[in-house]
Amino acid sequence: LQCCFSMKLFEHSHCSRTARSEEDRDSLWDAWGPWSECSRTCGGGASYSLRRCLSSKTCEGRNIRYRTCSNVDCPLEAGDFRAQQCSAHNDVKYQGQLYEWLPVSNDPDNPCSLKCQARGTALVVELAPKVLDGTRCYTESLDMCISGLCQIVGCDHQLGSAVKEDNCGVCNGDGSTCRLVRGQYKSQLSASKRKLFLLLKCHLPLLVKFPFLASWISLHSFLDT
């Protein structure tokens, strides 16, 4: 309920009408239903709730809402969620042939479609228009795909949240909990590794301008040992 106070009668009347219109809009909907089961058992999934329009006319607003769930890390043996969805097509022939499908991640144009690449080939296919709810939009992000759309997720695991970790890795932190560790690191490098390190150090300006030289230097330093 929106409460408004004003010394001016016109402003108070306008605000009251706004509050009543919001109440009238909500009164056209049935109550929200129960939350569905989570789309995942770990790794962060999505759950939804529905409501029904009680009016013969079109209701304003949404008939579905989402929230995150199962926000616990999956065991390592569980594997990548997008990779699981690709491998589910391994026993389904594509153009008369079976392939082992690997995930294609971080698609800037459509991160929520299931694009997979056949192992050992350059063949990339969209095997489904939408990944399952809870699939990460990008590998290094908490944002997740829900109903085919990438939704922002903060480090607090809330949809639409802009909360991020600070430099210390603390969610919504202010960077004050970092601890500076001082010390020396000693490592015994083999002669070949020392030679490679010196080569890379001496050629650093060239490597910045011509990155492909790194592989050439590495190869020749290895052959010279």
Coarse shape: flat
Average pLDDT works out at 81
**Share in helix:** 10-25%
Oligomer: single chain
Number of strands: 7
Biggest sheet descriptor: 3 strands, antiparallel
- Write out the strand line-up for the largest beta sheet, numbering strands in chain order: 3-4-5
**From the helix content, strand content and strand pairing, which structural class follows?**
alpha+beta
Spell out the helices and strands N to C.
HEEHEEEEEHHH
Number of helices: 5
Q: C-alpha Rg, in Å?
A: 27 Å
Low-confidence stretches: 1-20, 199-225
Termini gap: 77 Å
Strand content: 5-15%
Structure description:
It is built from 5 helices and 7 strands, in the order αββαβββββααα. By secondary structure, it is of the alpha+beta class. Among the domains are: 28 residues; 54 residues, no CATH class. The strands form 3 sheets. Strands 3-4-5 form a 3-stranded antiparallel sheet, covered by helices on one side. Strands 1-2 form a two-stranded antiparallel sheet. α3 packs antiparallel against α5. The longest helix has 19 residues. The N and C termini lie far apart (77 Å). The N terminus and C terminus are likely disordered.
Summarize the structure.
By secondary structure, the chain is α+β, with helices and mostly antiparallel strands.
Defining traits:
single chain; 225 residues; alpha+beta; disordered N terminus; three-stranded antiparallel sheet; flat
Describe the protein's topology.
Layout: H1 9-27, E1 45-50, E2 64-69, H2 81-87, E3 101-103, E4 114-118, E5 124-128, E6 144-146, E7 149-151, H3 191-202, H4 204-209, H5 213-223
